Amino acid sequence: MLGFKKKDSTSGASSTDRAAAPAGSTTGTGPGGSKGHATPSRREAEDARKNQLKIPKDPKAAKKAARQRDQEYRSRARQGMKNGEERYLPARDRGPARAFVRDFVDGRITLAEFFIFIAIAVLALGFIKNQFIQSWVSIGFFAVTALIVVDTVVLLVQLSLRAKKEFPEATDRKGLLLYATLRTLQLRRLRLPPPRVRRGGAPKI
Known about the structure:
Elements: H1 2-20, H2 42-53, H3 59-82, H4 96-106, H5 115-125, H6 131-166, H7 176-184
């Protein structure tokens, strides 16, 4: 009987303590409890983020600010590409192997980069209605094309030998020959990323 009475008194004390606690009080403020303040709502968090980014509340002003940020980023990206900064380069131009190929091609005078001028000249001469001239233009065009092919093949063979020494892993050399071929067909001043070595210069490793 005494045991049951003691248990009842203990339960009653606990119930009394819970009832006496204020309804609006925050519990668990100790080291392992809650933060002690209300968690901000999603809308409040979004407003705080916008304030940090300094986005105007006016829709027109916000669009103008967004366009200005995009324009500044594109300007930085263009300048970064001109400077050859890795993070601003397209995926096809990234990596030390691609940089080596660009330097190898840019350090040489290749006939392929002048092919566009040769093609324009042949097209212009083709309007001359003279069988003799057209015959020699055709012969000259095929001869120059053959020289371009031979010059490009020699360059690619030399590049392949150098690339195997500098980059022993086959995965690092994947697609380098095609990349070099496309580079040779571009005029030097129009190449992107722009050349970083002079004619006759050695690749920067």
